[in-house]
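Progress report, Aim 2. The chain analyzed during this reporting quarter is listed below.
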Amino acid sequence: MSEQLCILGYYVYYKYWLKFSDRTELERWQQTKLKRHFRFIAKNSVLYKGIRDIKAYPKIDKEFMMRNFDKLNTVNINRTEAEQFAVKAEKERNFVPKLRGITIGLSSGTSGKRGIFLVSEAERIRWAGYILARLLPGSILNFYSIAFFMRADSNLYQSLGSNRIQFHFFDIYQDIKEYGKRLEHIKPQILVGQPSVLLMLAKEKEQGHLNIAPQRIISIAEVLEKDDEKWLKKIFGLKVIHQVYQCTEGCLATTCKYGTLHLNEDIVHIEREYLDEYRFVPVVTDFERKAQPIIRYRLNDILVESRRKCRCGSHCLALDKIEGREDDVFSFPGKDGIEKIVFPDFIRRCMLFADHEGEEDSRIVIKEPKGNTRRDGDYRVVQEVDGRITVYSNLTENEKQRVRKEFRKLSEEQGWILPEINFQPYVQEKEKKMKRVERENGLKIIK
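Predicted structure tokens for the chain:
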């Protein structure tokens, strides 16, 4: 059977056939898939030889996986050759070749540790069918032009292309302003990119320098802030901005037609380590990944469970948002002598609440000399190693005072000692993922 027919088969399977009547049926089906998966892993992974019970597998992280890379994978590829192969592809910007039929890639290393991922041909084809089932705005038989902005191309992404689906890779290391003519020429129905790139494109469109009208925008690779999402909807005239929560460890969540982000529990099993009533850290087992088994992989992300049931009827867990990384939680000395932790969402609120009262857009808006307004709400808030806070944003003195006021109010409400707050101009570094809230050195404070 041809590759395109296989992809079509998976598309139909995930879009139309695989349905669950309730949560119990979903979980029972997961257990069947896990048992079958562990039988294969127990026979083919040196590291996991003979292990068939999920609770017998250790919880792992990126450091563990890279340290045990050679014994963990089932395709007899060692870490050194995989890394050399992937680095060469990055340097030459040529992502077509495979290593003995296996797609090799590098994670972007947001957590400070670069990872390597392996994907077999069968896994690549299944992934393509799944992604198309989740993200195409209409039938797979329609014609689509997809503009994909990413740090690196991959055989994975090229799998999405066909005679009807034209896939156009845009290298984010190039000047985005130079992409205008190419974007207008291909007229993408689907625009895919990390929020920092989507915001730049939106700004070009708002200023009249870019004339495109995508039917669907898909945010990837970075946390999509609620206010950024709202602004993208406004500029592009869309009701929903879709998200794909995908990392080296798998495609973990996608957005439904109603704009709710759901865990992809039809391809991954997620254990939840709760931090409070709704926030949790996911521990991932991907029961479709065999070349590089992802079993009880503890991510460093904080997910927030939705309190509302989604209208789409899916029994996969709905998320309110991806709040950020666990090691970007801020820490302050408490007035009672006990260390206080502050989740990224509270830090973001300080920036949002410092906005002008009554403005339509819930962002800091700086007045231009002629009385017009421009969107200039980009910011980063960093807790330095010594505990101080640095706010990177292009603010007036009055706006800086409002930010200080909001942080002071938050510290009083939560009972911690407010450190020194400094301000610096905002500059988005294209080679780094955009992180609104960041703790320097990523000190892990949640066990």
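The first strand starts at residue 103 and ends at 106. The two ends are 48 Å apart (CA to CA). These observations will guide the mutagenesis work planned for the next reporting period.
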